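User: Show me an example of a complex going from sequences to structure tokens.

Assistant: Sure. Here are the input components:
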Amino acid sequence: MKSLHKRTKNLGHIQGLSRKFSKKISLEVFKRMCISRNFELKVKKAYEEKSVKVPIYLSLGQESVSAAVSVAFPKPYIFAQYRSHDIYLAYGGDPLALADELLSKSSGCSGGMGGSVGIQAPEIGMFGHNGLVGDQVPIAVGFALGTNKKTLAVLGDGAAEEDYVLGALGYAVQRKLPMLFVCFDNNLSILTEVKIRRSWKIAEVARGFGMDAVDIADDPWVIMHHIQKLQKKLPALINVHTVRHLWHTGTGIDGPPEWNRYEMVRGELLRLGYERDVVRIEKAAEVSTTAIWDHALRGLK
Amino acid sequence: MTSAETIREFTRKHLKKGGVVLGQCLTAVGWVGGTVPEMREEDGLIELSISDVSNGGEAVGLALAGRRPIYIVRYQGFQCYNAALIINYAARSKAMWGVPCPVFVRSIGMDGSGPVTGGLHHSIFTRMPGIPVCAPMTPKEYQKAWDHFLSHDDPICVSEHRRAFPINFEMRNSLHRKADLTLLAISATRLEALDALKILEKEGVVCNLIHLFWLKPFVVTKEIKKALASSRYGGLVLDGDFEDGVVKTIAHDINSETGASMHVLGLEERTAGYAPHLDNPAPSAERICETVRKIVRKQTSRKRAMQ
């Protein structure tokens, strides 16, 4: 089968781009990546120890995308789907409320009703998702239509194939809505690769609808670079090739990841001479996340 | 004022207050049977693409945006696609996240137009918690549905029938001190039931008639209990949806509350064809009469056998 997908870790790479962003921005992205990564590792542990009893959909490996999007596209209304702990955290959702949600507590961000799938955070403009793949996209379109406010719709490569997602993309163009669509393309629907499921690219489809769109890898500087350009002419779509390190649901691992963006970003920051900051940020994220989970788990056992 | 005029007026007021109306081909010939005011895009009248499933999602998004959308679906059979996000998201939003998602779904039905565009299909909505369903026919009932929507924050499915649009009168329940059977009719079957009553009366069969407005939540009212208490052979619930739908749920609820023997009559459990002889229309007066006669005959012979 002919593959149309140039899925590489360097897709869309721009030489020297990291130096064009300020140290403050680059470190802010890294900080958000660290928080998400540490949080997901804590969820993994809690799940394996059976403290977390709900099905979980972890973002581990994909955190560079949410971190970069949240920095480059601040304060939108957010419609994400089931794998969105990272989006929630990157946009400033309360980590303790998310931990409580995963522990099925009434103090959780969805009162225990949403679990890992249906997290919400009205304080950051994030609406809950009910588990129906991709339905957040037409809902986001309706919301943007009703408010004309900046709206972020997050989807996966599987959701991109839902007919109602395609219909909604077309309508967003027709209505010139102020929306950014971000497709987290981890190449897998459970374990079925994109090339088995379709022979088209969502970025090309979006362009066919008349929307600006790019197809890139999960380098956070590349993501921010394109969002800066695209947000001047919304609606727009970015398809970001990224890597889900763990199983679709749960904490299993099938093998080494295709690439590890966290380590790549870390390496780039060291090359930029930010070593002390990197170590400080990593430590702070570890400490704060540990404290949150210790607090959340207290009294459970 | 007709039902159509009533809908058009509350819709016009809603648009003037910043609400929105959305659907496919709203401004086409007839403006949805004269129920949509001839207003413009700038007034909040939103023409949607022919993308049924995502359209339902866009209605949900507009509700989350606080616009209290009136979402018009021109044929109830199209709800197989349009209802998906309404029942999966709008109906759950308040329970899941405490976020109300009020959409006024105008689900319009008609008879005799084939496998998809014919018949009522409100049972698609009644099986899901979080969304009340009503079936107004008269001007006051339409107003009641709209007032309910404005005074609550839930989505609502309004199961409509095009035969309601020209109606300019109210329909009262018809109760007798002693009756053979109680008919409980939904939507346009109410009109057929009115005709059936006259035919049956001439044959000496006396029937009560209760007009049902709320399908869900369904309440077995004192009047229903009273009617069934006076009915020798129980009740017959009439619907324009398939018999294995909400009509059986209603019959079950009444039976549980009253102990009365209950029967149902709706669309036959088969796919309709376009050819007239293959159609699957809602119960006509003739079919209602025939069913009532069968029930009466069966119950009478059973009584005789027991004597």
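The lines above are the inputs; the final block is the predicted structure for all two components together. Chain A has a mean pLDDT of 96.
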